[in-house]
Amino acid sequence: MSSIRWAVADGWTMTRRDLAHWVRQPAPVVVSLLFPILLVLMFGYLLGGAIAVPGGGDYREFLLPGMFVMTMGFGVESTLLAVTTDASRGVTDRFRSIPMAPSAVVVGRCGADMLNSALVLVVMAACGLAVGWRPHGGPGATLAAFGLLLLLRFAFLWVGIYLGLVIANPSAVTLVQVVVWPVSFLSNIFVAPDTMPGWLGAIATWNPLSATAAATRDLFGNPGLAGGWVGVAVAWPLLLVAVFFPLSVRTFRRLSR
């Protein structure tokens, strides 16, 4: 129990350190808030009229749950950049020389990014309400949908932390961006997979982003694919966390060897 309290206290200290950086340098946070809004306006108003919704309905109500999911997926880049920046500046080496819990640095990074993600979701939801999106599933289902979104973000955080520790080079963010964009579009975020060629649609259907998008549309009561995706939307993030959380902690420990 003493070790657990030590790890929690050190993790919270590192979280406060990252939050202090955002207060002093708010530009990256502001960009992370404004960029998804720009995408909503572009796809909702410029392209939405040309896209059919599965089963009919308003395209913006179909789009917004997908945009929530896409925003959670894009968090991989910001997490990776923060981790690699600390590594390139020697900050990570200094942390390793301090008597702290081995998990504190990665847990602190995760805690700060989760708070930022919750703020992004609030801003995105407000933007969605402004452009005509409405949740129709009731308070409990709406909270469950946002819980699934944060669970997905939590999973991708550990992917970003692990990649940042392994690569340790800020320029590698460009490579991750090259991967993140096709993965995001190869899903049901913007269009239904049945509009794609058969083999491509099958890949898009089982994309972790697609599972969460389909589940949240169902919980929000928005138009989209048939229900039954909530279990898959929970299983995918738990699998990613089970793989990348221990890898992240183990990699951080091995950096000093």
TrEMBL record:
One of its GO terms (molecular function) is ABC-type transporter activity. Pfam families: ABC2_membrane (PF01061). Coiled coil: none annotated. It comes from the Bacteria. It is a multi-pass membrane protein. Keywords: Antibiotic resistance, Cell membrane, Membrane, Transmembrane, Transmembrane helix, Transport. It is found in: Cell membrane; Membrane. PROSITE patterns: ABC_TM2 (PS51012). Its main location: membrane. One of its GO terms (biological process) is response to antibiotic. The chain crosses the membrane at residues 26-47, 62-83, 104-131, 143-165, 172-191, 226-247. GO terms for cellular component: ATP-binding cassette (ABC) transporter complex. Residues 27-255 form the ABC transmembrane type-2 domain. Belongs to the ABC-2 integral membrane protein family. This is Transport permease protein.
